[in-house]
Specification:
The chain has 336 residues and is mostly beta strands. Strands 1-24-23-22 form a four-stranded antiparallel sheet, with no helix packed on it. The protein has a four-stranded antiparallel sheet with strand order 2-3-4-5, with no helix packed on it. 44% of the residues are buried.
Amino acid sequence: MPQVLSHLTVVRDGWHNAFTDLIHWQNAYWIAYRRAESHQARTPGEVVLVVSADRLRWREAARLKIAGDDRDPTFALAPDGRLALLTVVVPHGGDVSTLQQHIAFSSDGYHWTDPQPILEPGHHLFRCRLRNGRYYGLDLLRAPGFRRLDLLVSDDLRHWERLAQIGSDPLLLNESDITFLPDGEAWVVARTLRDPDNALFASAPPPYARWTLAELNTMIHCPCILEHNGLRYVAGRSFPTRDGDAAWPFGRSLAIWQLDRAAVRRVMHIPALGDCAYPGFIRDPEGRLCISYYSMHAYRMGVLQPFTTIAPGAETRPKSHAVHVSDIYFAELELP
């Protein structure tokens, strides 16, 4: 039966902590997230990494600050075994059409190379996945009045080649993830920005030039796909009240769906509320299913008052900051 086996608050410091990713590397668990005053790209943000050897005790390992708003960090393993961190930067005074994708590398998780730009401005590389020694990434190109989701491929995480466009511009595809079946077929789940905002499923056989799209029956934001016991699951932000799901009678949650071809079935909710989700979702070497995410539920449900947990010096922030406070969480799950 799907259930939450353990649940832990990793970061609670009075900031808007969000946009997580999770990896198991060098016998430890690493979470990357963005720390800022609010969700919006107009607020300065920095990338923070925390680490744990036992999934219980977490400590800060590093911070990466480039310029402007550094956000949406994701992990990858470089060909030489180093840990890679991809993050996108929205410049001060800029917008998403001027953002710049960056990458940094580390041999220990604590000391990082200077982040270097990759791709052209306006390109936002979502999670990349390794298959047969090559990296496949979903790239959202943003420009005024235009967006396009492409599949890219790379051998070194620095230099990327465009393979194909997924969907067409009016679909307004956005956050996305990709998984591969044993025969090499690729499946993609993508958030959309169109009415009624249902997520889309896309599939293509190698060499991934021709894609078939189908609309899913629910909204899935910030999808993260994981293969487990021959099945595929996708985690992401859910809107259960919109879907008539009485199991979680609130506006938003973090949900897990079982993913089939052109269909999903919700199997569980994980405590989350308000501005939330953006999960990292992994299976560790011992078979544990682990997830990281962010949420405002401790404040929205009255468990905590935002100002009781704000870090030293926070009294100088605007009072409106309190409505943006969110925490980082880590959970172990059981799925079929």
